[in-house]
Amino acid sequence: MKLVECPRDAMQGLAHFVPTALKIEYLNTLLQVGFDTLDFGSFVSPKAIPQMRDTADVLAGLNVAATKTRLLAIVANVRGAEQAVTYEPIRYVGFPLSVSETFQQRNTNKAIAQAFTDVAAIQELCQRKRKELVVYLSMGFGNPYGDTYSPELVRDFTAQLVQMGVGIISPSDTIGTSTPEAIETLFRHLISEFPTIEFGAHLHARPGEAPDKVRAALRAGVQRIDGALRGFGGCPMAADELTGNLPTEEIIQTLTASGISLVINKEALQKAMTLSAGVF
């Protein structure tokens, strides 16, 4: 099981700016926990996401030599990807592709058709620079805008990405609308139809909902799950009221109770939990 910790997602919507030195301290602690991947920052417009304007400076302060955790950076266009791939420590480049036309415009200021063009260019760039592209299918479980949605639409988007050679795809419950039944149904169908693809679950949840959502993803065969300590976060472009990420500590508890063995540095995890109070 691959655990992806997402402090970038947790921090991006905060009203206060988290000082660069504190970000570095927090992220370096997370790098010692034992996560597969750390979604640490983003190369996007500082006007759109001011919290992430120091991503390059933060990266320079990370102790990547002392960890097996791989770094992921989010981008919203080709220019951001061109920045991200220049940094050797970054293994993954993440791009939010929405199945909702309204949200694609809100999130990246472009239409879905243009976003697919960007994905193709970013995928080619990643292949040349030996990075891996992770495409997040935002609004993958419904949206509040009245746009057309169906599991078949998510499947069609996935098929187009597979044709481009994208190997990691994460349907995303951007505003917490998914149910365990919907999670299990969607992932079962996707994993069955596209067995060579690594599917991730990037889910948001209200308090108390996370364990059932994690168990649903497990039943479907998902082997990659995103979370954030204490369930902080949510997409500031999606709604006025943020719905938090799955709390990482609850993911760990649920996986362990389900018999899945995880190699976690409990001391580092506890330190990160303590530090998070000062960050958020």
From TrEMBL:
It comes from the Bacteria. The keyword Signal does not apply. CDD domains: DRE_TIM_HMGL. Gene3D superfamilies: Aldolase class I. InterPro entries: Aldolase_TIM, HMGL, PYR_CT. GO terms for biological process: ketone body biosynthetic process; L-leucine catabolic process. Keywords: Lyase, Metal-binding. SUPFAM superfamilies: Aldolase. Residues 1-270 form the Pyruvate carboxyltransferase domain. It holds the Pfam family HMGL-like. One of its GO terms (molecular function) is metal ion binding. Belongs to the HMG-CoA lyase family. This is Hydroxymethylglutaryl-CoA lyase.
